[in-house]
Specification:
heterodimer, A: 6-stranded antiparallel β-sheet, B: alpha/beta, 3-stranded antiparallel β-sheet, 13 strands
Chain lengths: 600, 343
């Protein structure tokens, strides 16, 4: 039994975006001959097109590889890929929990960055053995010695002997495999104990239903086992178990120490939740594995079909997406301005953008999306407590006693010359300075506490542009705090457009109201009458702009040679109009709702 | 005969035995061609297509290329209408537009034209020019009226970004008059020309009684037409098509006996209906309901009743028993109005 466990290594790769995690994964799969060269294509583990485009991993998957070590023994290496973005921290922590070791990949020309740190802390929390690997040594700007030193000083890990590799060029990949065998501890587990399997991810398969990606901690599971999800209570009959190569390969059973998938005719991934424990219904484990958390959305926005008749299709598409994304939530919602749509909840801005893009691209929808908003907690004057995810639902000013907003802890890594600019930005975003450390001469980490609603708009882009891309940041929600917030409304031609309302801090309301009014003035196309735009708080108008009336819309010449061209022009104009929404007496382009955010 | 004229002749052979009610020689500036060219061209085309019984044969001219000789040639060739690109009588404006004629040259050319016996002459005038005031435009109109042509076409300047003028506007070196001024000029045009006996019969076209341009009326009444030459457009046997745009390619294709067409589309009933709105509403007389019903078997209000009434309620058009017509306000928004009739 222990001999079998001794030959297993469960590990993952953690790194900052673009430091080479996926390329290294490709190389490991390649070197161990796990799939034929013919089937190999770049970044195998990033299968979705969208992921490939953005160069990030959204879904994590796992690959079982076999490797014969220098001692002649064949080892089973299970590589679990982890999502790279700050929005998906919970998923990362569960994937880490499925492993005993983590390769920490650091770019030899960039060194440690914010996400590197964030992920290392997560791995340390899971008590993983962390093995530094210095990548991209082929680059002219690579300085492996300096980076090794940085790792030692900042993280406290010995890095002098860390393999110096180039995943892209295939240099020293064998050293990595050796490292995994020699340094990652083998898993522990009891084959005979009741089944306890950690779900670290899931995937909806058209034929097999929702697949649970599991690390079996104790016990065995095979086809025919009746399983129970310990935290949700649901029960299913296992149809098939197997491993990833990276494609699905059924096997007879999965046992303690192993990583693979369970197919049990589960209808949606919502029923196989990341972090939950699978046990045997008829012989259940006493306790579920620790660390399970119900994922809560942090950022909300309204999504409406540009064409009202597509409402049902949109709902179907969201349901389909939810089948493979348990962290996407949505509920029907109506807006006076936009009609019938959905209030959707996401883990963060990236998550939101991805879903929007998938809806538009894979399902071919024309969408109108409102500005993202966070969840506010309020206490009304009558003592009633409310949580609001849609600014339009705010009660009247005089009914509110206290408003609380979510606060995050942000870690910003930067070269020293930008510290001033960053402090300015954070201050601008109502940040509270906590501390600053130099992790090395050329790198400082600033810690700020900031309201989440200041981050979700354009903090990331502003940070990048003011620091010429050198700064990086990571955040976690730390709680709620009371705040002086007000609801900023916008009236078009005298009528409030509910979909434009935003919640802002009282001190910023005037400036924000003015800026948005100006933006609206530029974005709203001229119509046959003049359109007054007003920003208001409560009933009080705080800013005013006007869209001048259009005076003419006619082509002077229309002779024989102009007719075809004119028809084409009209068709184009018609297409443009389709993206308009009639809001009261005014026509707004779909972009107006998001455009109000891009202010800088 | 030069290659281009050969090519035109070759193309016309493909329409052998067709008969034209009107002919329009344009492009380009046909008056730039050498003496005798136009006569040759009409003769060789005329060998295939019956143009000699046409009621109206127009040639577009540039004032500075008109000579007594050319005018005689045109008269003998059977041309009975001239369309002259006057544009403006103000030397500053002419310079800005890059025109090579002066007001004096223009006056001279005009008097020669009358002497040669032309009794149907059109001026093209452009308003809404950079630096032009309403007063200046009114002066242009008055000057034009003093010449007393039979027909005047007035256009608001369209700026093409790829032209020297367009670039200057883009760079902010030249500024167009405000939109209100454009409309004021347009309304002034109608008033002043009406005073002098020119009735507006189309959005940009004004004529003395009985002198509307028949060739153009054909376009607005969805009539068919054959375009010969490179980049020419046609609407023939229910199909709209355009010819090769590049000169050498056109000449080669004609010599090789190949098709001149580069884009074709068969205009089905639905599109014909839309086109009739798009084109006929441009006429002050509007869309004739009886003509529409004859062509399509239904009254236009049966097809578009709701939209028409909505627009009538907005003051953009008026529905009478005989016709659907744009109002004065409707003429300002003629294109926007059309969008609602597309789906």
């Amino acid at each position: 039994m222990s001999q079998r466990l001794d030959r297993i290594r469960n590990f993952c790769i953690i790194a900052h975006i673009d430091h080479g995690k996926s390329t290294l994964a490709d190389r490991l799969i390649d070197s161990t001959g796990t799939i034929s060269k013919r089937d190999m294509h770049n970044q195998m583990l990033d299968t979705m097109e969208l992921e490939q485009e953005r160069g990030i991993t959204i879904k994590s998957q796992a690959v079982r590889m076999f490797y014969t070590h220098t001692d002649g023994v064949e080892y089973m290496l299970n590589l679990i890929d982890t999502p790279g973005h700050v929005d998906f921290t919970y998923e990362v922590s569960r994937s880490l929990n499925a492993c005993e070791g983590a390769l920490l990949v650091v770019d030899a020309s960039q060194g440690i960055e914010a996400q590197t740190l964030a992920n290392v802390y997560l791995a340390l929390e899971q008590n993983l053995e962390i093995l530094p690997v210095i990548n991209k040594v082929d680059l002219p700007s690579a300085d492996p010695e300096a980076v090794a030193k940085e790792i030692e000083e900042v993280i406290g890990l010995a890095a002098q002997d860390a393999p110096r590799i180039s995943a892209k060029e295939g240099i020293n990949i064998d050293q990595v495999l050796k490292l995994v065998v020699e340094q990652v501890p083998p898993p522990k587990g009891d084959y005979d104990a009741p089944l306890q399997a950690l779900i670290f991810d899931s995937l909806y398969d058209n034929y097999k239903g929702a697949l649970s990606f599991v690390r079996v901690m104790n016990g065995t599971v095979k086809a025919g086992t009746k399983i129970r999800m310990m935290n949700t209570g649901k029960e299913f009959d296992v149809v098939e178990v197997g491993v990833f190569t990276p494609s699905l390969l059924p096997t007879g059973e999965l046992t303690a120490g192993e990583v693979g998938y369970i197919a049990a005719s589960i209808k949606t991934v919502g029923d196989t939740r990341v972090g939950d424990t699978i046990t045997e219904a008829l012989n259940p484990a006493e306790k579920s594995l620790p660390g399970y958390k119900k994922i809560l959305p942090m950022v909300y926005c309204g999504i409406y079909p540009a064409d009202g008749s597509e409402y049902d299709d949109l709902r179907d598409a969201l349901e389909k997406l939810q089948m493979n994304d348990a962290s996407l939530s949505f509920e029907p919602e109506t807006s006076v301005a936009l009609g019938f749509g959905f209030r959707c909840g996401f883990l963060g801005l990236l998550h939101m953008e991805i879903i929007q893009e998938r809806l538009e691209r894979e399902y071919d929808f024309d969408l109108v999306t409102t500005a993202p908003s966070v969840i506010y907690k309020l206490v009304k004057t009558n003592g009633e407590e409310m949580t609001i995810d849609n600014p339009s639902n705010f009660p009247k000013v005089d009914e509110i006693d206290e408003i609380q907003e979510p606060i995050v802890k942000a870690n910003i890594l930067t070269p020293p010359e930008y510290i001033g600019a960053i402090m300015e930005i954070c201050q601008e975003k109502r940040g509270t300075y906590i501390n600053m450390k130099y992790i090395e001469e050329k790198r400082a980490v600033l810690e700020y506490h900031m309201p989440l609603n200041e981050i979700i708009y354009d903090f990331f882009d502003t940070l990048k542009s003011r620091t010429r891309g050198y700064a990086s940041f990571d955040y976690t929600i730390i709680g709620y705090e009371p705040s002086e917030l007000v609801k900023l409304d916008f009236l078009l031609n005298g009528e409030i457009c509910d979909a434009l309302s935003v919640i802002v801090h009282r001190e910023k309301a005037y400036a924000r109201g003015r800026m948005i009014a100006e933006k609206l003035r530029d974005v709203i196309p001229r119509q046959m009458f003049e359109i007054p735009i007003q920003a208001a708080i409560g009933g009080k108008v705080i800013a005013r702009e006007t869209v001048k009336a259009m005076r003419k819309d006619v082509l002077a010449k229309c002779y024989g040679g102009d007719i075809t061209r004119k028809k084409k022009l009209l068709e184009k104009q018609k297409e443009g109009k389709k993206r308009m929404r009639q809001v009261g007496s005014v026509e707004l382009p779909s972009e107006a709702f998001m455009a109000v955010l891009k202010i800088n | 005969m030069p290659a281009y004229l050969c090519a035109l002749s070759q193309e016309s052979a493909r329409y052998h035995d067709e008969k034209a009610d009107t002919v329009f020689i344009g492009g380009g500036t046909p008056s730039y061609l050498y003496d005798g060219a136009i006569m040759q061209m009409l003769e060789s085309i005329g060998a295939h297509i019956n143009i000699m019984q046409a009621k109206e044969i127009t040639i577009e001219c540039n004032p500075c290329s008109l000579t007594k000789e050319k005018l005689q040639e045109y008269k003998h060739a059977g041309i009975n209408r001239l369309s002259v690109g006057a544009q403006s009588f103000d030397p500053r404006m002419l310079k800005m537009l890059g025109r090579s004629h002066t007001a004096e040259q223009f006056a001279q050319a005009f008097s020669w034209a009358r002497e040669a016996g032309f009794t149907n002459i059109n001026f093209d005038l452009i308003s809404d020019l950079p630096g032009q005031s309403l007063e200046q435009w009114k002066k242009t109109l008055e000057t034009a009226c003093r010449f007393a042509p039979e027909h005047i076409s007035c256009y608001s300047l369209t700026v093409e970004p790829a032209t020297p003028l367009g670039k200057k506007v883009q760079q902010g070196l030249l500024q167009l008059p405000p939109e209100e001024t454009d409309r004021e000029m347009y309304y002034a045009t109608g008033e002043i020309l009406a005073k002098h006996g020119y009735e507006q019969y189309e959005i940009s076209n004004y004529a003395k009684a009985g002198k509307a341009c028949l060739h153009n009326l054909n376009y607005w009444l969805s009539g068919e037409y054959i375009g010969l030459g490179c980049a020419a457009h046609s609407y023939f046997r229910g199909v709209r098509y355009a010819n090769i745009t590049q000169l050498d390619a056109y000449i080669r294709a004609m010599a090789a006996g190949q098709s001149a067409k580069i884009e074709e589309s068969l205009i089905g009933r639905k599109e014909q209906i839309f086109e009739s709105l798009m084109l006929e509403l441009r006429l002050n007389s509007g869309l004739s309901r009886s003509r529409f019903a004859e062509r399509f078997g239904e009254d236009v209000t049966d097809i578009y009743g709701v939209i028409l009434e909505k627009q009538q309620a907005k003051g953009l058009l008026e529905i009478t028993p005989a016709a659907v017509r744009l109002t004065k306000k409707g003429r300002d928004f003629a294109d926007g109005i059309l969008l609602e009739y597309m789906d």
